Amino acid sequence: MGVLDGYRVIDLSIAMAGPLAAMRLGDLGADVVKVEPVTGEWQRHAPAGGATGNRVNASFLSLNRNKRSLAVNLKSDEGRDIVHKLAASADVFLQNYRPGVAERLGMDYDTISALNPRIVYVSMSGYGETGPYMARPGQDLLLQAMSGAMLSTGREGDPPAPAGTYAIDAITAYSAFEGALAALLHRERTGEGQRVSVNMLDAAIAVQMQELSIFTVGGVPQRRGREPHGHTYIRAPYGVFATKDGHLALGMPRLDALAVAFDLPELAGMDGDADGHTRRDEITAIVARRLPERTTAEWLEICARHDLWAGPVYGYADLVADPQVRHNGSFVTYDHRTEGTVTTPGFPYGLSAAPPAVRRGAPLVGEHTRELLEELGYPADRTAELVAEGVLACED
Description:
Layout: E1 8-11, H1 17-27, E2 31-36, H2 58-63, E3 67-72, H3 77-88, E4 92-95, H4 101-105, H5 109-115, E5 120-125, H6 140-147, H7 167-190, E6 194-199, H8 200-206, H9 209-216, E7 238-242, E8 247-251, H10 255-261, H11 272-278, H12 280-290, H13 296-305, E9 310-312, H14 316-321, H15 323-328, E10 331-336, E11 340-345, H16 369-375, H17 380-388, E12 392-393
Parallel strand pairs: 1-2, 1-4, 2-3, 4-5, 5-6
Antiparallel strand pairs: 3-12, 7-8, 8-9, 10-11
Helix pairs in contact: 1-7, 6-8, 7-8
């Protein structure tokens, strides 16, 4: 039994941030109904990395487990009515439409909360639902660029570089997940539903609480140096360095200990907190010249012996084979109706009493339409008529 067993989530979201937030609720036991067009949600037709799958691509598969699919035309009166009936007894309603779309479809907060005053309505957007940027596309790379984070790494003069993951999508998803859980707790205590507003811009700003506070409170400018550096506000050495056979990640080791471990006496008299910032380029260059003399494994052994923070640089093949990753059970493997045995990332948290679990794989388009309509009291012949009229789509 999951923590959210007995709760129902209506998920009208697309792409990554919304579906990921809804999936996390499903991982905790909620009955998540994915409401998608009769042709299927956008992510079904935009396979990341070209991993198309048999009938469900890898990106959709990764974001939509523990959900049931209702394929319905929301531009039809009866299609809207079906979703309204589901919302009337639901606990969470989540959407990430462009501004104005929810209102046109009758899926806005005023409409849904009038049907169900106890609903937790999660509205997700790129830049906010009002203001000068409300109509801009809320896409991960664009928000990474605007957030300022790209200029916290790298070398002066080098072009800004995006993160190697969809960082802002993920941060926004977890913000929505957190907001939904907080609103549910509020409802348990007061009986009141409410609107939860989440936007990618604010999420990208909030996650940089240290960096931006250093700038706004400490008045320290965001300055990249001449040498490659992992973060403008962390003292040197900090970053990834070339070794004899690969690379080593080195995380702000104590300079006195580093001087001994790496046989770099020029570092011995330096003050880590002061010189580590003001002489960042010099320190980085000294360390970079030394590391190609040994292999990554040799440096890792030396760093471990001297209690210095260091680690290997992995690709995905290295990651999935790592013994700690295997020990943690960081990936989950299960059987999917059309994709066979699949392995995907698992859960970012553990609960001793009611752990998250995979109860069903990502659904096919309309796989649960008949089931959900039956739960709403629709007779089978009426559902068949709605399918024939194009209001619904079913996976037979």
